[in-house]
């Protein structure tokens, strides 16, 4: 008799019932994160297949990565919660970076190669911030934290490379970035799916 049952005629308060219904609807889109994760994994495989690539190709690939990062943050920004405002800021920043990359892919490569360490540092910090914001909701939050720490370490290592070697470094680390983003999105999608089933 440890189970507590609601007395007959009992109804949940309307505000709580509405919140539960909204959460259930929202978490019903868990598959979007899964699709995004699979897309990131595909991008990482494509990028890591390049033995050599032209500077323009690298610039366009970096632009596509910024575009996908902007779209992913825009989706998160569209939902209410603690991640909304940081996601809006990063969606705008990644969107601007994508536009600049598509307008001048050659200049993008040179610019990205010069500030590659700073870019990876920015991404690493964002992943660590997001991991701590997701901690109450996502049991695999530590995966984002570890990815952020690794990206930060890569940022300091990359900053010390010579410009000539940065073409290949940029390709390899862009592939690693896409791989870590994809794994994180897939893990997050299944965490949201678990919440959806509980609701």
Note down, in words, how this protein is organized.
With 199 residues, the protein is mainly α. The protein has a domain at 29-53 and 105-198. Helix content is 79%, strand content 0%. It has helices at 14-27, 30-49, 55-77, 84-103, 105-114, 116-134, 141-159, 166-198. Helix 3 packs across helix 5 (105-114). The longest helix has 33 residues, at 166-198. The radius of gyration is 20 Å and the shape is elongated. The model is unreliable at 1-8 (pLDDT under 50).
Mean pLDDT: 77
Largest sheet: none
Gap between N and C termini? 24 Å
Number of helices: 8
Poorly predicted residue ranges: 1-8
| Radius of gyration using CA atoms only | 20 Å
Structural shape: elongated
Range of helix content: over 70%
The run of helices and strands is: HHHHHHHH
Tell how many strands the DSSP assignment holds: 0
Structural classification: mainly alpha
DSSP strand content: under 5%
Topology, pairings included?
Layout: H1 14-27, H2 30-49, H3 55-77, H4 84-103, H5 105-114, H6 116-134, H7 141-159, H8 166-198
Helix pairs in contact: 1-8, 2-3, 2-8, 3-4, 3-5, 3-8, 4-5, 6-7, 7-8
């Amino acid at each position: 008799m440890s189970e507590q049952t609601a007395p007959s005629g009992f109804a949940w308060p309307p505000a709580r019932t509405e919140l539960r219904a909204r959460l259930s609807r929202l978490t019903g889109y868990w598959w979007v994160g899964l699709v995004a994760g699979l897309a990131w994994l595909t991008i990482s495989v494509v990028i890591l297949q390049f033995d050599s690539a032209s500077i323009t190709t690298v610039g366009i690939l970096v632009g596509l990565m910024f575009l996908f990062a902007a779209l992913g943050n825009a989706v998160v920004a569209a939902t209410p919660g603690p991640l909304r405002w940081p996601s809006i800021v990063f969606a705008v920043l990644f969107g601007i970076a994508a536009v600049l990359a598509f307008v001048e892919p050659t200049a993008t490569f040179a610019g990205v190669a010069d500030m590659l360490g700073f870019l990876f540092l920015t991404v690493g910090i964002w992943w660590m911030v997001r991991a701590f914001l997701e901690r109450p909701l996502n049991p695999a939050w530590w995966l984002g934290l570890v990815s952020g720490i690794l990206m930060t370490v890569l940022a300091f290592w990359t900053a010390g490379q010579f410009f000539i070697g940065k073409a290949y470094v940029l390709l390899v680390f862009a592939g690693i970035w896409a791989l870590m983003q994809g794994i994180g999105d897939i893990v997050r999608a299944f965490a949201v799916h678990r919440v959806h089933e509980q609701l």
